[in-house]
Design goal:
Order of helices and strands: HHHEEEEHHEH
Helix content: 40-55%
Strand order of the largest sheet: 4-3-2-1-5
Distance between the termini: 29 Å
Number of domains: 1
Strand content: 15-25%
Number of strands: 5
Length: 133
């Protein structure tokens, strides 16, 4: 269910090519209490880190505009934020967090930075993320 909804949002945004009032209203109809937060996350700078040659990817987003910490996102599956852990995993009150939804939208728009690293750097990068979480 939640993945289907994310795929649907991804396709609507990708088809349109930009986030207009119609799409914002659609997202607002699904997540009315969170639309401002979702837009604020979209305005931050997502990074898609791809490790080569395996093509393994993770996404990251700063926790706030001042970049004090970093969240890790596996698209449509997992986010390292507290809200995902509490509201999605433990309480089962939400299907996903605002970061997963914002990542889906940014991916559809191509609105993210790409970082390419070698597979051998994966473990070192994960250690770096642990220090910044």
């Amino acid at each position: 269910m939640s993945k289907d909804l994310l795929f649907s949002i991804h396709e609507k945004v990708k088809e349109k090519g930009f986030l207009d009032e119609e799409l914002i209203n659609y997202i607002n109809s699904l997540f009315s209490e969170r639309i401002i937060d979702i837009i604020n996350v979209i305005e931050r700078n997502f990074h898609k880190i791809t490790f080569n040659p395996s093509k393994r990817s993770i996404w990251t987003i700063p926790t706030s505009k001042d970049h004090e910490r970093i969240y890790v996102i596996y698209p449509k599956l997992y986010c390292s934020c507290w809200d995902f852990y509490k509201r999605v995993v433990i309480e089962k009150k939400r299907l996903f967090c605002k970061h997963i939804l914002a990542q889906t939208i940014c991916e559809a728009l191509g609105n993210y930075d790409t970082v390419n690293l070698e597979d051998i750097e994966f473990q070192k990068y994960i250690e770096y993320l642990k220090l910044n979480f």
